[in-house]
Structure formats: C-alpha cells, structure tokens
Amino acid sequence: MTLKQLLAACLAVLLTGHAAAAQTVDPNSVRLNDRVHEQLSPQVLARIRAVTQVFEPIDGISYERAVDLYKRDAEANLVIFEEMARVYREFCASRCSRPEERMDVYRLVLLRSMYSFAETLRQAQLDVLSKAEAQAIVDAYRLKAIPITVEKR
Q1: For residues 61 and 11, is the Cβ–Cβ distance under 8 A?
Q2: Statement: the pTM of the whole predicted model exceeds 0.85
Q3: Most CB within 10 Å of its CB: which of 15, 28, 78, 128?
Q4: Which domain holds residue 36?
Q5: Residue-level pLDDT at 74
Q6: Are 51 and 78 in contact (CB under 8 A)?
Q7: In a domain, 103, yes or no
C-alpha cells in the first residue's frame, strides 16, 4: 500500500455500518462524505493548524485542505490525528533528520490508527527504521485502532 493510498483511505472517512472484515479499497474509488459543518470553531481550527504543522511537510496536506476535510467529522478525526502527532513528535524529538525516517514514522502512526499493534507491524514497509524502533513507535500509540468504514453506493 502506497502512502497516497494510505492517506486517501485515512482522510476519506465515511461513516456507515459495521463491515464484516477489513478489505483494501482502491482510494480512487472512494468519495468523501458530505460536510457535517460549514464552519468550525476557533478552538477546532487551532487544533487543525497544530496537526497540520506536524504533518504537512510529510503528507503535503495544507491547512486549508485539512480544514475542508475536518468539516466532515472534525472531533473524531482530530483526536486520532492529535494522537498520531503526539507519537510522531515524541519519537522525532531528537532524531528524524532524514525525510525517509520521517516518512517511516508517519506511515507507522497512520497504520496504527487503523490497525492493531501486530497488524501494523505486519503491514509496515520500513525504509530506514529498525523493527525495534517500529515497535516502540507502534507501542506508544494509546488510542484504540479504528478501521475506516467505506460505504458502497
């Protein structure tokens, strides 16, 4: 799974019923759900800016694009991305000088937000991090994994 596919799947959260089993979906076939909010509070916008400042250099999603995406389900997704940012910053506080290293950490926290500890490590495609480093990153993520649900239309 490429980063583009991972990002598209993660950011195209569609709220529906429960899926029977996890499946890989072509991100090009996913359509974003409708906006739930036309406006977001200043507090939510500040939280979006904080998360965007951490991840924009890696995923290329601007603050403006992030605001549009969060209008679909701001609170639930912000909590997830704030936890991802916390783990990312914690691990990269004294390292992550190379883009490949930052990308490995980002991929791991993104996967961990959707998959169990074991499944995240199984799917991890590490370029520079060791397995031990990957385990430490995955273990630092405190929220329950929430798979993305996609509704067929």
Answers
A1: yes
A2: no
A3: 78
A4: 32-140
A5: 75
A6: yes
A7: yes
